[in-house]
Structure formats: C-alpha cells, structure tokens
Amino acid sequence: MTTPLxxxxxxxxxxxxxxxxxxVARVLQVLSxxxxxxxxxxxxxxxxxxxxxxxxxxxxxxxxxxxxAAVVLAGHVTGLTTGTFxxxxxxxxxARVAQSIIHVSSGSVMAxxxxxxxxxxxxxxxxxxxxxxxxx
Length: 136
What we know:
The protein is mainly α and 136 residues long. The protein has helices spanning 3-31, 49-77, 83-105, 109-135. It has a single domain, classed as Up-down Bundle (Four Helix Bundle (Hemerythrin (Met), subunit A)), CATH 1.20.120. The protein is elongated, with a radius of gyration of 17 Å.
C-alpha cells in the first residue's frame, strides 16, 4: 500500500469511528430510558449540542470522503504515490481528524474558526492533489 492509500483508509476508519460513537451515544440514551429507540429523527437536530455536533462531524466526513477517494485513486492509477502527492494526503487526513475533533469538542466562535481553517487546509490539499493528477 502507498501513503495516499493509507491516508484514504485512515479517512474511512475515522468516519467509521464517528459512526460507532453516534451508535454508542444512541444505545446509551435508549438503555438509560432517556430516549425512545425511534426518537432520532433523520436530518433534524435532536439530543444535546455535543451529540448533534457529532452527527454533523459524521456528515462532514461522509460528504468529503468520496472527493478524497476519487483524487487518491486517480493518483494511484496515474502512478502518483510519493512526494508532494503523498505528503498532501497525510496533511489532508490530519486536518480532517483535527476538524472533526474540534467540531465535536465545541461550538464556540474560536472552534468554528479553527474548524474552518482545517477545512481550508483540506481544500488546498485536495485542489493541489487534483491538479497534480491532471498534470501527470
């Protein structure tokens, strides 16, 4: 496996970890009797602010995973597996994990600004990686 493929798999496992965290939170709510099993409406805010931020962090991952996967796989097919492309894939996944952790941790103005910074880093990495693929 190459570094970009490891980064892609890291993104997959990170997204799965967030799904598991949501599942655990829901099961605990149901088992404690605080919430009915059918009290988790899709696409509507429910639960605590932290729980809802966890849901949004999950959706952010789900929205961005296909784009990252497409670029990494295109890079793999064209032979881009080392150098700048590999480094950018590592920076991208680090910024993705940081963004999720910040998102779940707080909804403060500072947290939102830090999340946006992480998003901009990811966007810059992805655009540069895509350009490297196209220019290959």
